[in-house]
Amino acid sequence: MDDVVVLDTLAAVTAVSLVAAVVVGLLPRLPVPQVVLLLAGGMLIGPHALDVGTAQDVRVLSDVGLGFVFLLAGYELDPRLFREDAGRRALLAWGVSAALALGVVGLLTAGGVVRAFLPVALGLTTTALGTLLPILREKGMLHGRLGRYLLATGGVGELLPVLAIAVFLGTQGRLAALVSLAAVAVLAVVLAVLRRAVRDGSRLARVISAGQDETSQITLRGTVLLLVALIAVTDQFHLDAVLGAFLAGMVLRRWVGAAAPQLEAKLDAVGYGFFVPVFFVASGMALDLPSIAEAPLRLVLFFALMLAVRGGPALLVYRGVLALRERAQTALVSATALPVLVALTEIGLRSGTMLPENAAALVGAGVVTVLLFPALVVALDRRPRERTPVAA
């Protein structure tokens, strides 16, 4: 690959990243989240428009960006949520979604519309928590009771599909996927042991504490090493590594303890400042626009199914604890999907089980959910609080 071409593409990708941030800053009332501008910018500079470059030109950086999406999502998720009502209801809602997805996709498979049964069914149960986090945090929607429910439903909708994909659809087989899960468990134990070993007052603890800031940035460098190592253990970036990144984020938050907010700010700077935008711009560049144009009804079908299958159960499961407006917000958050869909379609295409038009339509539908649903969630939050009693 020509290094000049790669640098030209990277320059265009970073330019799109900067322009998107500037536009959002200049137009604070713009009802479109920044990720949408990144995707649209990627489509514009991609091979189907200006043809500045291809997603393959920045593949490595994009892979690290996808890893950061899941690492930050796992870092944000508090495992204690799953012992609360929010976590239990989130698990129930995802279970209902999974049952609906299996039934609906089974009918589509019987009708010849779908060939890759399991990838498509799992795709309808995903939630893009990593994509939604910057939007929800910026609008202050992660605090309070509603924030707990949004985090729980997003975390379940991201973790469980990735777990199922790693076990049933891993590119290196089920045994390798289980070994990958075991490796993450070992990582958790090792980090726990290290935490006990690095006691306050020890020399190593003083070195780590003194090196957290300024030029050393020890904890940040260690986190980046952890993420890159998870990606580097495979020849290609696949769901096993994604799962590892998500779980590593959860483990890491527990390990750093009181320093979690400080490290989180640094991860935000590195992830959202560079790697995550590269991933979303590259995703836009990789979108197969001609396939979507040839079969637009498939995109409409998958979009409707995402809203009904993933979002619909939230309207019922959260009755009695959330008002109708809040349930609508939770349903829209639940139905927003993209990063896992990208990885799912990649697996389906590599294995030859997924039709190219379905892969493009699934990712395209995910892009539409990111275009519309977060903006609707924010718009609903701007309305006056309802004074009516919570629906029973």
From TrEMBL:
Protein's membrane topology: Multi-pass membrane protein
Domain of life of the organism encoding this protein: Bacteria
Residues annotated as domain Cation/H+ exchanger transmembrane: 19-376
Major location category of this protein: membrane
Location of the protein in the cell: Membrane
Transmembrane spans: 6-28, 35-54, 60-78, 90-110, 116-136, 148-169, 175-194, 269-287, 299-318, 330-349, 361-380
InterPro entries on file: Cation/H_exchanger_TM, Na+/solute_symporter_sf
Biological processes, Gene Ontology terms: proton transmembrane transport
Pfam families reported in the protein's UniProt record: Na_H_Exchanger
Keywords: Antiport, Ion transport, Membrane, Transmembrane, Transmembrane helix, Transport
Cellular component terms (Gene Ontology): membrane
GO molecular function (one): antiporter activity
Sequence similarity: Belongs to the monovalent cation:proton antiporter 2 (CPA2) transporter (TC 2.A.37) family.
Name this protein carries in UniProt: Transporter, CPA2 family
Protein species of origin: Geodermatophilus saharensis
